[in-house]
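Posting this for the archive.
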Amino acid sequence: MTNYLFLAPDEFLLGQRLSKLKQALGDPEMASLNLAELEGARSSAADILYHAGTLPFLAARRLIIVRGYLGHLESRLGTAKSPNKTAQAEARQILEGLADPAVSNDLVFIEEKLDKRRSVWRGLEDTAGLDQLSKNGRLAIEELNTPDARALPNWIANTAKRDGIAIEGRAVHMLAIYVGPDLRRLHLELDKLRSYAGGRNITPADVQLLVSDTSEALIWDLTDAIGQRDGRKAMRALYALRRNDANPFYLLTMITRQYRIMIKVKDETARAPGNEYDIASRVGERPFPVKKAMVQSRNYALAQLEGILDRLLSSDFAMKTGADPNTELDILVAELTKTR
């Protein structure tokens, strides 16, 4: 028997991992007869170990998937000052069952979170916990977390390499920026890009053509130009957005969003400096727009950014009360790029 513990699983990574384990059962028609999925909060150690000990039907093994059981058991155990004797007996039963090498089936626990300070992890007085079971080779613990912003390009590159997809480094980084940590969509985009490239290397131009909504990048070009007080460049960016059929109300919303990010970033960096990853995690934005905002916000005092936000809100009111939206945006950009 192989026991697994999948921690904090990303939905896509978990699906891939379970798919491999299910494929290992052999013939799909027979596999369904050798698969059991249990809801942890409604299951006991006896239920789980019964399924783990059941002989497989015309196959080498069974697969038992248990969701949330260990976390539920952890909460039942209570504190050291007020231990739950029934839950302790349950914990001993399941931990001793995991230590038993006699069963040939695969048992998978899926948990969003476990406290490594608690007795399920560390063990009871006379029973090895999950940590010791892992060290003894009786439990394979795998953290299937969604890659963070720093790790995402490596995940994309490694996935492409595994699937035989040739992609340039800059294209990898563009995918990470445009799609973010949506692993399912990234996987689909890589397949689409592979089909389009037809065997050659996937380039940044391919990503821009097939994947990106270029509006956000063009809006950053617009806010860049506004920050530099470059009226000509700002108008070119605005008209490029219009050629992409961007709705003027959408444009104003997105421009306002960029300035809100600049305000958050400027305020946060004043309190606690850091790189784009540090700041992004603290303000709840993605690293790419934060990096842009860190550069752009240097052109403004915080009071100026707040004044621009007020001007954007007045444009929003004017556009909603009869002003021609495109004319209002032209006037807005002209005002914001005027040399002060």
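The mean pLDDT is 88. The domain at 214-336 is CATH 1.20.272.10 (Zinc Finger, Delta Prime; domain 3).
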